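Quick one, T. Sequence first:
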Amino acid sequence: MLRHFRSDIQAVFENDPAARSRFEVVFTYSGLHAIWAHRLAHPLYRRGWFTLARIISQVSRFMTGIEIHPGATIGDRLFIDHGMGVVIGETCEIGSDVVIYQGVTLGGTGKEKGKRHPTIGNNVVIGSGAKVLGSFGVGDFSNIGSNAVVLREVPTNSTVVGNPGRVVKRNGERVGDRLDHTQLPDPVIEMFRTMQKEIDELKAELKQLREPVAGGEMRK
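Structure tokens:
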């Protein structure tokens, strides 16, 4: 337990340039307080002390604005930045060196039993307001963009944006979605791309009309 506490403090310094001292981090970082409360509640939950574990998690929720179900499994060096409105479900599993920003939900999609929350890999960053909903995996070294709504598996080393979430980068390479029916395109972005293409074409035609022809006269 003490090892976890030390690594959790170190994770704050590694991910937040505003952290100045251990005293400040220990007494003022609500994300750290929520994680520590969970590290106390989780062993109780696993031993069948469900009510006591839930009381600890609810007190932590009241104090920090962060709700972590005591049944969730959390790895080493999780960093929750600011954290207000973060919700982590009962069967959620989070790997090591994960960063979560405020307003993130790691939840389910219905009343199904058993595993119903996502499994987050190692070294994953989940942006503000993102929703990851369902029993699937988010691969290691992946990034979930702010306000993305992710409803299906995310491959390793991918970047996901949009609603519904779609992979736009994989292994550092941009993923084309025009012919990939498993990746839903963003109609708003596509509309803007079409409009920009038409504007560029009109500019090119206007430029040609303004160019002088032989004899110094303008094209008509």
